Amino acid sequence: MGAVVRRGTCAAAALAALALVLAWSAARVHYANGGNWTALFCSGAGVPLPPQLDAVTYRVPLVGYDGQFYRLLAHDPILRKGYARYADAPQYRFRRSLVPWLAWLVAWGNDRWIDTAYIATEMLFIALGTYWCARLLGRRGRSPWWGLLFLAVPATIASIDRMVVDAPLTAWFVGFLLYSEEERWARVWVLAALAGLTRETGLLIAAALVAGRLLQRDWRAAAGFAACAIPSLAWFEYLARHLPASQSIPEIGFPFWNLFARLLIFRTYFNPLGQVVLRTLDLLAVLGLIASVAVAAGWLRHAKTGPVWLCVALYASLAVVLGPPVMFDPFAFGRVISPLLVWILIEAVSRKNWAAWAPPLAITLNASLVFARPMITIGQALLRR
Q: What is the pTM of this model?
């Protein structure tokens, strides 16, 4: 009975997360975006779109953000409409196919409903990530309501605000943590395969599983987990055959170089007073990234080597090799390394080490600045009523 009650509480936490995200998004769209839900895709005014989509799309200044390109794939999942030519780097963007495909399936391929289905899919992934966090922490003797910490991860913030695929990937990672702890390896295999299709950095989960079995000299299991990558590699090959080569965004650099060089880069903000505050938050985010890697390294040093250990180590390694385009923006590097950050938060709650919250939350604080302008607009609208 206790397990049933605990799972019910986990589900309640997931529903609470879903309700919070839906309420925020509805308020933002209504008060700040004229009721047009396509504003969540952050489509840039300077980026061309297919005529069918352009007519109904809310535009933001300049070039927008990545969600606008995943939306194209959702409307053209097997590249038959030619929407790929509207993406800045189609082979690179369209590798992240799972969320767009799910949106297309939920809408039964009906163009009128794909945007709604995409937004709903993102929200359901956030609920799923919260549920798995709650399950994992409940299993460790903590209140399942701690699962709501999934909302504090930069990937979740980015997905709420711009419909990127990082919250779904982070949800798969939390599921990987849970089912690895429960030793449900068939489920882990499925999650690893889906993570690779969600974002290429999700392949680190499969790499960790393979490496873990190789260290145990379990060649058969290693080969089985290596098969997790086959769906992703097959899709990448399909893209290479059907799309022209495009220059990828250089996300990887020399280890540690860009991480520490970033401390000497000061971004320019227009408001002089705001510039001091924003630069301070910017610096804190970079220091938070460095501290997060240090915290992870310290905990891993005393942990048992296994798939989870290896996977966390790989994401920590990713954090120290990120290239300039990603490292320049805390919003960008925060969402890319969110699996590492959510692991630290989960471990901090499990260990009751509250000081370990500070590094990830320094990055979260910076990422959450994207909510500031909509919040001001909503507040002004409500005061005028």
A: 0.95
